[in-house]
Predict the 3D structure of the following.
Amino acid sequence: MSTRSYIGRLTEDKQVFFVYCHFDGYPSGVGTTLREYYDRPEDVIKLLSFSDISVLAPTVEQSFFYGRGRKEPGTEQQQITYDEFMSEKIDYRYLFDEYSEEW
């Protein structure tokens, strides 16, 4: 069963760049992986650059992306405001603040 989540990056002007992640979106799954392996702005930017994620792994190379792996169109990262991101209906949301460098 899937536990859906959004993974995003917050910019100084309160814009959020994000992708959808299909599996293991709960804090002990995706949340732990993000905190342990994607803790620098450049790592988060790289992660979000591929497309929506089916399975998040400790490295980008090990992760499975809908656009990169399956060549599915329309799975690129999206951009919305912070308020829009926070009001999205999704099981979990993870937001990396690129200035404080914290999730």
User: Anything to note?
Assistant: The CA atoms of residues 33 and 81 lie 25 Å apart. The chain has four helices and six strands. The first helix runs from residue 27 to 37. The first strand starts at residue 5 and ends at 10.
